[in-house]
TrEMBL record:
<keyword id="KW-0560">Oxidoreductase</keyword>
<comment type="similarity">
    <text>Belongs to the aldo/keto reductase family.</text>
</comment>
<keyword id="KW-0521">NADP</keyword>
<dbReference type="InterPro" id="IPR023210">
    <property type="entry name" value="NADP_OxRdtase_dom"/>
</dbReference>
<protein>
    <submittedName>
        <fullName>Aldo/keto reductase</fullName>
    </submittedName>
</protein>
<dbReference type="Pfam" id="PF00248">
    <property type="entry name" value="Aldo_ket_red"/>
</dbReference>
<dbReference type="InterPro" id="IPR020471">
    <property type="entry name" value="AKR"/>
</dbReference>
<feature type="domain" description="NADP-dependent oxidoreductase">
    <location>
        <begin position="25"/>
        <end position="261"/>
    </location>
</feature>
<dbReference type="InterPro" id="IPR036812">
    <property type="entry name" value="NAD(P)_OxRdtase_dom_sf"/>
</dbReference>
<dbReference type="InterPro" id="IPR018170">
    <property type="entry name" value="Aldo/ket_reductase_CS"/>
</dbReference>
Length: 276
């Protein structure tokens, strides 16, 4: 965890950067492309998009216009709920690749566990993995029971489970399960969409370490072994989010942040989401 290029070795041997750029809601063409290019040229190597975000084409363009070769980047996208099922997921993948204008993908994920469909969707992802169209396959928003049900019928287990995760929703049982199964955990909404920036404990630690509360939260994730993809279109924030490798939180400080957990979700609950 010494610099922005720190990477986690996934269970299939693929190296995935610990810090990346999330691009949710980044749909304004020029501003978004410029922000992604800036992040890549600043040192970011992981870019996380999705069909839902309607900006895969912007990511593809920004990557081509950046100063970094495609092979040095880690690009991820996701199959959306309405595209789930075996044949539909394969078609969705082809559409995503056309929009990204890339020859391969580093990580392809199921966006949500749509009941009655996610197992067939996973079979499609396994095929893409076997055919080497993708380097790794994973899931998002899967609870322990989803992962167990998937394991009972699959040949490959996910390399990554991307979930809502921040100090108010620390997901400790799920993280422990994933660690036991050698499934990497990735946090979306890692700083709780800015809701915790005035939290007294985080403000105190920020003052102590001469960092911002957002940097304290990101460092907490990283020291927990969690991959993070904070989203921003602002250059100063993109730089700030990457400036988290020159300090370390003590175990006591880590525990203080973990104690802020209230099992509080700001996004949808995977077990109570209307997928229709």
């Amino acid at each position: 965890m010494k610099n922005i290029h720190a990477a986690k070795t996934l269970h299939n041997g693929v190296q995935m950067p610990y810090l990346g750029l999330g691009v949710y809601k980044m749909t304004e063409e020029e501003t978004s492309a410029e922000s992604i290019r800036y992040a890549v040229n600043t040192g970011y190597r992981l870019i996380d998009t999705a069909t839902l975000y309607e900006n895969e084409h912007i990511v593809g363009r920004a990557v081509k216009e950046s100063d970094v070769e495609r092979e040095k980047l880690f690009i991820t996208t996701k199959v959306w709920n309405t595209d789930q099922g075996y044949d539909a997921a394969l078609r969705a993948f082809e559409q995503s690749m056309k929009k990204l204008d890339m020859d391969y993908l580093d990580l392809y994920m199921i966006h949500w566990p749509v009941q009655g469909k996610y197992k067939d969707t996973w079979r499609a992802l396994e095929r893409l993995y076997d055919e080497k169209a993708v380097k790794a396959i994973g899931v998002c928003n899967f609870q322990i029971h989803h992962l167990e049900e998937l394991a009972a019928v699959s040949n490959e287990k996910p390399v990554v489970n991307q979930v809502e995760l921040h100090p108010r929703l620390s997901q400790e049982p799920l993280r422990e399960y994933c660690q036991e199964q050698n499934i990497a955990v990735e946090a979306w909404s890692p700083i709780a969409r800015g809701r915790l920036l005035e939290e007294p404990t985080l403000k105190h630690l920020a003052e102590k370490h001469r960092k911002t509360p957002a940097q304290i939260i990101l460092r907490w994730h990283l020291q927990n072994g969690v991959i993070v993809i904070p989203k921003s279109i602002h250059k100063d924030r993109i730089r700030e989010n990457a400036d988290v490798f020159d300090f370390e939180l003590s175990m006591n400080e880590m525990n203080k942040i973990s104690a802020l957990n209230m099992d509080e979700r700001y996004g949808p609950d995977p077990d109570n989401l209307n997928f229709s």
